[in-house]
Amino acid sequence: MKRILSKHINTLKEAPKTLILTYIVIYFLWGLGMNRFGTEVEIARFTYWWQVITCYILYMVPISIILKEYTFFEQYAYGLVAMGILEFLGYWLQSSYVYPDNILDKVFSPQNFSLGMALFFALYFPAGNWLVKKVHNLIFMSDK
Q1: Residue 140's CB: how many other CB atoms inside 10 A?
Q2: Residue/partner pairs of 134-140 with CB below 8 Å, 24 or more apart
Q3: pLDDT, tens digit, 9 for 90 and up, residues 119-133
Q4: Backbone angles phi, psi at 27, to 5 degrees
Q5: pLDDT (0 to 100) of residue 144
Q6: What is the mean pLDDT of the chain?
Q7: Rounded Cα gap, residues 84 and 121, in angstroms
Q8: Distance (Å, whole) CA 113 – CA 116
Q9: How many other CB atoms are found less than 10 A from the CB of residue 50?
Q10: Which of 16, 26, 50, 107 is the residue whose CA sits 20 to 30 A from 60?
Q11: Which residues lie below 8 Å from residue 121, measured CB to CB, with a gap of 6+?
């Protein structure tokens, strides 16, 4: 266990600062956008706006960096575990608000809401890693 944690900590320490900055900017904007979308269409939202920072930057960015070298399906599988835990805790602690009778409840039933959210948001890891790599290479690697 110590070896695994040490490997992941080293992965985070070795990540270029420009890459980390790219993750932070993209994930922050993505989080604000998704929170706004969830509020506007009355699906779900964070209780407080700053949860975008704790969720997207402090939780998802390190996980994304650790998973970035994995295959799409491995990123999705590990992301599903990470998002399942996050979704469960968010609704259990009531730090996330689910609008009653939202469209996802109507289509999939309220009992499947958290599962559906975890399945959807697990895609953020492979999709986010792909997007960050493209943007980072475009901005910081274009002169090489």
Answers
A1: 14
A2: 135/22, 135/26, 136/18, 136/19, 136/22, 139/18, 139/22, 140/16, 140/18, 140/19, 140/22
A3: 999 999 999 999 999
A4: -70, -35
A5: 53
A6: 93
A7: 9
A8: 5
A9: 9
A10: 107
A11: 79, 83, 86, 87
Structure tokens at 81: 């575990």
Q: What are phi and psi of 98, to 5 degrees?
A: -105, 125
Q: How many CB atoms are located within 10 Å of the residue 90 CB?
A: 21
Rounded to whole angstroms, the Cα distance separating 128 from 107 reads: 27
* Tens of pLDDT, residues 25-77: 999 999 999 999 999 999 999 999 999 999 999 999 999 999 999 999 999 99
Tokens of 63: 């996980």
